[in-house]
Amino acid sequence: MKQRKWITALMLAVLIVVQSFGLTTAQAAEEDLKGLVFQASRANSVNLNGMLDNFPATFEMLAKFEVNPNVRQVLFGNYNAGATAFSVELSASNQLRYYEVSNGKTIDKTTTGQSITTGAWTHIALTRDSANKRVTIYQDGAVIATFDNLDLAEKVAPVAVHSIGTDTRNSMYVRAEIAEVRLWNDIRTLDELKDNIHVVLKGDEDGLKHAWTLNDSVLDGLVNVVRDKAGKLNGTPNGFPRTYTSEFQGKGANFASGKLELAMEELPARSPRTFETWVKIPEDTPSNKRIGAILSNYESQSYNDISRISFEIGTNGNPRLFWRDHKNYELNYYANNVNLNVGDWVHLAIVLNDADGTVSTYVNGDKIHEAKQATPLPKASPFRELKLGSTYEGYTAEKVPAVNFNGELADVRIWSTARTAEEIKANYNDYLQGNEIGLIGNWKLDQAADGVYTDSSPNGNDVIPYNDETFNWLEPDFADGDYTIAVIPDTQYMAESHPQAMKNYFNWLKDNAKDKNIKLAISVGDIVNTASSTSQWKVAADSYAYLDGVIPYVVTPGNHDGYRPNYGNFNAYFPFSKYSKEPSFGGAMVEGKTENTYYTYKIGGLDYLVLAMDFGPSDAILAWADEVIAANPDKRVIITTHSYMYHNGEQINKNHHHYPSSYLGDANNGDDMWNELVRKHENIVLVVSGHIGYSDLVVREDIGDHGNQVQQVLVDAQYMNPQDLGMVMLMTFKEGSNNVDVNWYSVKNDKLFRAKNQLSMNLNLYPNNEPNPGEEIKLGAANQTVAKGVVFTVPVTVENGAELTGLEGVLKYDKAILTLESFEWGAFKEAGAMNTGTPGKVGFAGIASAPLGNNGKTVIANVTFRAKADLGGADTSTEITFENMRGVVADHSGESIYVSVQSEASKIMIVSRVQGDVNGDDNVDSLDARAILKLIVAGLGQGNESQLEAADMNGDGNVDTSDVLALLQIIADKLTSEATAPQI
User: What is the tens place of the pLDDT at every residue in 379-399?
Assistant: First the structure.
């Protein structure tokens, strides 16, 4: 009996000890629990980086909720109106709620009478049993609610990404510290839930779908991620405090108020491949707030292939590069595992690598994100000047930019080269000298002189204070000349919505005909917006009638004025019976129809022929035009047709939006018209067109089959706001000169629009009015022999160029053999520009204020290349060639005209270095041994491949001290051989 009592007592003691141990362990585990603290004021959440493949069978969360906040909270959700959804929430009464949408049905169940938001750690779970049509909710290993007879689909494909702590609405944020969230593919039993509350998972457990242990999150101040222990789907935490200390000791400019607006004076000289800056963003910035633009020219455009760039910080502090320059794709790159909202200076660089199609993000010199792009990387230069710290997306009611950078910026840089990891690391925390290869622009932003921040790069493209009014609109300063021809853009929206403005527009032309000596007005079509609207046609006809007897004019129909052959209202309101009586009328393709006509004028001592063709002229219309032009070889021909040029400066073709043959099966596009008609005639001097709405004038020049210049201009202001600006292009001519000055003017504002649109162009009006520049002007570069892997410079020179004031053309090279490092102007750098956006080509144009004055060889540019070292095999040669070369000189009247320039190719021989000749002096001696030692000490990354190849004396693929010894032995053997050689 005593023994039994003793055994019983012992068992009880053991049981108490075991229970006490278990309680202690549980308590210790609870005391040791840590997680991420979610605060609604900080808009905290964890956004999964992809979608679930199905709704989970079991959901678990270990959390400590704020005590009875009495607000709705989303614990885990992906609500998206009308779409499939799986959401676990706390209701405003602090009860657990399960919400599901699947198969078009909604399930919405909430517990009652439970104590969940107590401020203590609690484990909640939910099982979704589709087979038994049941949802069960658990708390701390006990069932607290069961809901039966639910129509639960077995397989559901979510269409929105889930978040921990919120859902797609980015609201109803959770108020809790959350340690862990688990999803399972199988229905966990009560015992499994109870026994594994505090068990640390490995990630490979049977049935485990995902497991996010939030206290294991990486929150180092920059890169932050909540890792999925199952290794399938990580999450990005937003808005959590982090620890970070910056290296940057400088100063920058603060754009947060929106009151500082800056814009570049000019477009970037070349297409950027690397963007760099220091940023400082307040740490308490809400995660759902877009930080804003660093460098951008983004604005809403009717055509999505207008080249727009935005280098910016998006929501969650994510670096972003947006670049649109193609109608079918765009670059929209996010470094979504990076959060720069740390309250201190961070260096950011984004690099576009054309070689492998990747975009990479570097933070403080280290690469932390990279993504390969499925479509080609953009290269087209931006269509307008980049702003620093804001965009062109309009203004708020407070008259500050709608999208400005909500922080500080310093030391902004753009490069024409894809900077390597080594290059970024080497100088991200140092100020540049300004002469670095590939540097397009560098603005330190530490101080301004009269509001101007200087560009320390060779391009001198300063950023200046921007004002939307004064930056774009100029007081009228019209060009002086002997006579003017006006070109009238698409007037469709004035005819439709602003009839009085249209009448005022033509009244202005009438009233200024004498003062500005306007001798002719030419329409480019889309006179009205709706071809069937007689009210619009009446407005248009009444407006044009102001010019009758004052200014001769030519009208041509656009696609909004009707379609071939249905131009009923066009012919009714601009009738053949009226215009065929004009003394200038030359004829029509079809008697009685005005859609294809021509007129002749005597202006300024020249005979002009203006030929008007309808929208997307057919082959028959082009044949008629060809006959008319051929029959008038003594006349300067101006062609007007509605659609010919595109906003990017190309003749409109099938690669563009709204090309004519997409409307009419027999239509010819702009490139067809050039090839089939325009290029063939020496006397065609100008083509004007509309159709493609664009705020700026777009001028293109081509050389016809007879060596003649042909200017082509897009003139269409239809998308400018407001729609009643009344834009007109005024071309001012000077008798005896080919130089024509152009003004782009608003009748309503009485101002000129943008300095870039007040320009000059050469029309081939006086083909024989060219000076004799003496001997033939020649351009070329010396042949060179270089070693593989080295960087070398090719001086480009011009001979017999004493009268030259400018030069333009294209330099071509083999991009498989040479890598362009830089193009720097010598002469003509006062207004020099180049375009390196196309690999293998450099387009360049430069102007000087005075002629060269020297017929000897003058260096006009220095082009630096790297000889690629990955070709292998025998010695390689390549050529650098030039095409489309033209010089600029003054003609007999003092106006600038083009003259021909002959060019010669430069041959580049690429050779491997002699083994041991590390310093490249064609000798193998002790200097090369020293060069190897320098490479070893400085690090082999400091040497190019050619040097390393020559330094690897023993051929083991490494460069080390054994190679120095091998080289010294060769030198010693050579000296011994020379000493013992017989004397002669």
Answer: 887 888 999 999 999 899 988
